[in-house]
Amino acid sequence: MHTAITIDALKVLDAIVRKGSFAGAAGELFRVPSAISYTVQKLEEDLNVTLFDRSGHRAVLTPAGRYLLEEGRTLLKAADNLAHSTRQVAQGWETRLRIGFNSLLPAECLFPAIKDFCALGIPVDVQITEEVAKTLSEIVESSTKVNDLIAEIAAASEEQSKGIN
């Protein structure tokens, strides 16, 4: 699958708009202005659209150019997050945090800690499971990923529920 839109082309487009000129983008990206112009021309040619109106003194984004820039910035942010997460995983960081708790514990007890964790901005998928029928140790045993973290909250309540059954 070939796509004309590359991360590099999106970085060039973003730099042109932020710096206000092709020359400014060239300086920021440590390239010659002709390389910036070539990247934009190639992108326009591949997409068969005009991204900049060059009729005036300054090149101005067309509606298609504005759209590509807005959506492209989302992709640039996602690419940065992906690179960061990949480096974290290479250092042993987990990408998923599974929290299982017994139904005897009110879920509201977890909210402050989860809110604080999410505020750290760490790209981790947090999954919360309330278990009624299974014990938390059974969840750990049936987990498909050995390194999943299962927080056993209120272990005493689990022991109490065994006594009730």
Automatic annotation (TrEMBL):
The HTH lysR-type domain, residue ranges: 5-62
Record keywords: Transcription, Transcription regulation
Segments traversing the membrane: none
Pfam families: HTH_1
A molecular function (GO) term: DNA-binding transcription factor activity
Similarity-based family: Belongs to the LysR transcriptional regulatory family.
Protein name as it appears in the record: HTH lysR-type domain-containing protein
Species this chain originates from: marine sediment metagenome
Species classification: unclassified sequences, metagenomes, ecological metagenomes
